[in-house]
Structure formats: C-alpha cells, structure tokens
Amino acid sequence: MNAATKLGAYVLGVAVVFGGALGAGRVVGPTATPAPAEDHSAMVPQTEPVAEHGDEHAATAPAKSDTPGGLQVSDNGYTLNPLTTIKAGEPTDFRFTVTGPDGKPVTDYQVEHDKKLHFIVVSRDLATFQHVHPVEAGDGVWSVKLTLDDPGAYRAFADFVPAGGSGLTLGTDLLVAGDYAPKALSEVSRTAKVDGYTVSLTGDLVPGQSSKLTLSVSKDGKPVTDLQPYLGAYGHLVALRAGDLAYLHVHPDGAPGDGTTKAGPEIVFYAEVPSGGDYRLFLDFQHGGKVRTADFTARAGAGRPKPTAEPSAGPSHGEHSH
Q1: What's the CA gap between 146 and 127, in Å, rounded?
Q2: For residue 302, what pLDDT is reported?
Q3: Mean pLDDT computed over 111-121
Q4: Which residues contact 231 (CB under 8 A, 6 or more apart)?
Q5: Model's pTM, two decimal places?
Q6: For residues 268 and 168, what is the distance between their CA atoms, to the nearest angstrom?
Q7: Domains, the chain, ranges and CATH?
Q8: Which residues, other chains included, contact 269 with Cβ-Cβ below 8 Å and sequence gap of 6+?
Q9: Alpha-carbon gap, residue 232 to 302, rounded angstroms
Q10: Which helix (H) or strand (E) segment is 12 a member of?
Q11: 8 A C-beta contact, residue 299 and residue 277
Q12: Which residue in 216, 239, 94, 93 sits closest to 169, CA to CA?
C-alpha cells in the first residue's frame, strides 16, 4: 500500500452482517476408519431455522445460508457484544459478553478443547494473530488482557458452544485509532519459521472438498517427536479467508493418549474451504513448555489475480502472541 489511511478517534466498531444460521467453525475430516457420529461442520452452507425480526412464526421455516463462520456478529439468536475500547499499544482489560436468544448474557457453556470459549484476534490485513483465553468475570462477562500494538482494523472471533446448543463462531470488528498503513498479504509458502522451529506444509486446499493438510515440525534440522498437548491436542489450526476473514477452526486427526496419535513431527488436519482464493493458516503448537504460532499463506483453486497497479514493497510476516 502506498499511503497511510488516517483512522480518526473511532470507538470500538461492530460489523454486523445478519443472515441465516451457521454451524460451528470446527472441522475434523475423514480418516481411514468410519467417522464418528458427531457434527463436525466447516465454512460451508448450513440449513437451520432462523427467525426474522418481528416474525414469531419464521423460526418454524428452515432458511438456508451460505455465510461462512465468523462473518456475523449475531447468529441463531446469539450476539457478541464488546464492552471495552482499545488504544494502540496499551494493555487493556478487554471485556465482552455473548447474549442469548432471551437477550441476557450467556453463563452456561459446554467445554470444548479444554475451554468454554476460544477467542481469536487478528488484524484485518492478516499480519498479526492472537489466540487468547478469556476468563469469566461473573454475570456472563468475559475478560482478557489484550494489547493491540498498532492502529488499524482488527477482527475478533468468539468460538463456543452454548449449553444444549450447537457450536457457533461470532465475529466483530475492533477499530484502534491512529495512522494505519495496512501490510501486503504474505506470499504463498509451504514453510514457516518461528523461534528456531521450521514448520512445513504438505497438501492443498480444494474448494468445496475435504482436504488433508499435514504440518511437520522440526528444530535445528531434526524432527520434533515430543510435542506437548495444548488445549487437548498436539496442534490447533485456524484458517482465515483473505478479504473478508471468513473463519475456519480445524482440529487435528487423533488426540494425545488415544494409543495411535504420535507426538510429532507430523500433525494431520482435514479442512474444507468454501471457495477458491488465498487463506492465512495459523498453527499453534506447544514444545518445551511454550506455545508458538507458525503462519502460512495458502491458495485454494486458481486463487485471486495478482494486482497489476501500485504493487506493494514486499510481503510482510505475521506477528503472533498468546
């Protein structure tokens, strides 16, 4: 980008896209054995009852939606509500609620991957990524220490399963005032380096089909075979579609302690993306008592055309924190 965009004194922004209901952003794909009878949904169209505002009878009629996860601040009666503004570079006790169909903050959640709620914050240019862990402050309020170093636009995702309900991923925009120069999307790559580790990616994203992705972790040229469980798995992968940040949270095939899954170097995922184009992949893994994040840009299908005017100075590399 050739010019900085001035963000004025914005308060916390909320991008609201109302549409049909969608399922959880979690996916576990097929394995060599028959798949368990569980609902593992992806960024694919879902069909669920949706009530239009003011129409008490609409909930009885199914409505089809092709809206991927994370694009809506409100879905199936649940709404993500930020309560805190953020200033660039200032550590903030960021608070939010999720209200339910009755309009009250939700206080009862199912535990998924060791947590009642997972919270992801990324910059709109996909250069920075944080997977943080809010705590319950009481009365349905969640609280997390959050620092957004640079001015600009960010997207926050709440990934959760309300008690007795289906998994949801809600998203909202966070705007941080100041001079903002968005970074160019990193080039497509199959290798990422972080903190002395090298993570290699094999497999391809195929629009509309389940794709096997294998991520191999090495350190100093040697395979890492003693990965440590993190949130009940050897790795967590988040995929975000460039442009609108449609969200997909996938989990690896197998689990620690199941008698067959090895602690590295390979972590296998199955993911389904809804369209061609560029995606950012963020892999969280734990080794030596520390969680690290490796990031890739991957392309599904033919992808998007390269810009021909005003090319950027070069790709940027993501910054990650936990």
Answers
A1: 17
A2: 66
A3: 93
A4: 113, 114, 115
A5: 0.74
A6: 23
A7: 5-180 (2.60.40.1930), 191-309 (2.60.40.1930)
A8: 29, 212, 213, 214, 215, 235, 237, 250, 251, 252, 253
A9: 35
A10: none
A11: yes
A12: 239
